[in-house]
Write a structure and sequence with these properties.
- The protein is α+β, with helices and mostly antiparallel strands and 118 residues long.
- It has one domain: Heat Shock Protein 90, CATH 3.30.565.
- Helix content is 47%, strand content 22%.
- The chain is built from four helices and three strands; from the N terminus they run βααββαα.
- It has a three-stranded antiparallel sheet, with helices on one face.
- Helix 2 crosses helix 4.
- The radius of gyration is 15 Å and the shape is globular.
Length: 118
């Protein structure tokens, strides 16, 4: 979609800060509700922003999440600073094979319930 953003906001995310995990996603969800956007779009944006925020918290030293809303578009971008993934091919293979997850994923899903995105 083209056009200028009608709403913009930036949020810092601190790597390793599990105590505040999901706080940015909650704030994004609340702002989108205040803007009166479609509930399905808000739900999808809340889930995506939560996952992105958790990636920064779990794997980066710090990051910034940027929210931009245009007519017909919600854009969430993330910039982070961290060690990166040493072997991206192996990481993708492990994910595809279902070797990732377990207790950590259960904890993250609990956080999704906290922000109301199931």
């Amino acid at each position: 979609m083209g056009g200028r953003a009608i709403f913009r906001r930036e949020f810092p995310v601190k790597g390793g800060d599990f105590c505040r995990a999901g706080a940015v996603a909650c704030r994004i969800k609340d702002l989108l509700k205040e803007l009166g956007l479609d509930t399905q779009a808000i739900r999808r944006a809340a889930i995506a922003s939560y996952e992105a925020e958790m990636n920064v918290i779990m794997y980066a030293w710090e990051g910034r999440m940027k929210l931009a809303v245009k007519p017909g578009e919600i854009r969430i971008t993330v910039d982070d600073k961290g060690p990166g993934i040493p072997d991206i091919g192996l990481a993708l293979l492990a994910q595809t094979a279902g070797l990732c997850g377990g207790a950590v994923d259960r904890e993250l899903r609990a956080g999704l319930r906290r922000i109301g995105a199931r």
